[in-house]
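Can't attach files on this board, so I'm pasting raw text. These are the components:
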Amino acid sequence: MLTKAEIQRVRSLREKKHREELGLFVIEGEKVVSELLAANYHFSEIYATDDWTDPSALAEGIAAPPRPHVVRISADEMARASHFPTPSSVLAVGRIRHEALPPNALNQGLSLALDGVQDAGNVGTLLRVAEWFALDRVLLSADCADLFHQKVINASMGSFARVRVHTVDLPAVLEELNHVPVLGCDLTGKSVHTLDALDHAVLVVGSEGRGISGAVREHITEYVTVPRYGGAESLNAGIAAAIVCDNLRRLQ
Amino acid sequence: MLTKAEIQRVRSLREKKHREELGLFVIEGEKVVSELLAANYHFSEIYATDDWTDPSALAEGIAAPPRPHVVRISADEMARASHFPTPSSVLAVGRIRHEALPPNALNQGLSLALDGVQDAGNVGTLLRVAEWFALDRVLLSADCADLFHQKVINASMGSFARVRVHTVDLPAVLEELNHVPVLGCDLTGKSVHTLDALDHAVLVVGSEGRGISGAVREHITEYVTVPRYGGAESLNAGIAAAIVCDNLRRLQ
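---
Top answer:
Structure tokens for the assembled complex are below.
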């Protein structure tokens, strides 16, 4: 059972402004909620209709992840709380946490920096790529799609809960770097097939429409590109970044 | 000006059944229509509101691609003909052409075969990847997302008009091959970093949920995988295929 005020609170989290005000975000859908529970993501509230079976209740021999009590609600309440025209059987609320970037963190390991990547699906895909290639962290500039947007979390396929992400002032953070290569993905860079092995580096992916911003370009030490053999105008940001990561990792 | 019957005909093309019956498909949006016109794609009908400016009318010194007369319609007519709640200023109708696969074609060059890839965005992305890496052709099994679905064409970013695509009975076509390697993208294959150079090959990408089908598996000569360094469960089909293509092309 949900009060009218509770339903309105959950619905309001569609908008970033309200998410920031309340420090909460919503995620809906059997698949994504299962993925995040499996990743031991700690939700603060879970609402479900009677159709929903808690996946951890089915897993034998696996300790149940920490979780709140599941509040059972009616299909009608779910329809009113949901952000979608076709609601699923489960809706979970999480607490927004912004993890500060520790000083000098970028001097160690491989970081992926997203500079104005505005498509939520692309941001989620890039989190998944970062996890696959075991990058040490992902940096988001303030004008990227909001990390707590449902589309970002869905597209990340659970990587949202496992990858370290920091929202930063990207030019200011790159300014502090100490002899760490900053590679920019660009159509006019050096071929990724000729890269040298790099233990520590920042790989920058720019926005879908206008590429890497002027303020970030000042800190790029080398542009890299995926060699093109045919006629397509560009590659999707997630694909280009994944190919660069594959080429970096094969050298290590 | 559009008659009620014409509006209904255009609207009906939302469904694959009607597209197949009429042999027509629809594409909407300034960006995608421009991309296809720039690729010299020959539409049979173009409807636009007064807001639409024909992009080729602006390009100086470039011969206008072949095209039908643009029929100007009102915003209200566009809203009724459009497949979307928020219609754009242009809607184009094209003729569905299924190009037969010439005999023995797969013995020459690199082919990308999609086996039950059901997400329209993934199919479009894979067309774009095929064009970037200059693959010779793309094969679609009959259970892939429909090539003439707007989402496929949109996601292909114009590659739809430039890549050779054949819808085929995939196991039957692979059965006919003569000493051509058939690589299957799989999580348990050999690392793509250890591939040998291949001038002629078919690369198979399976469905998002269940991978490569049993009937196609009988024809795979080698499974290949993108080495995983971190914890993500899988890579998106488009990303995995693009990384395999990058590794094949660097060897040539």
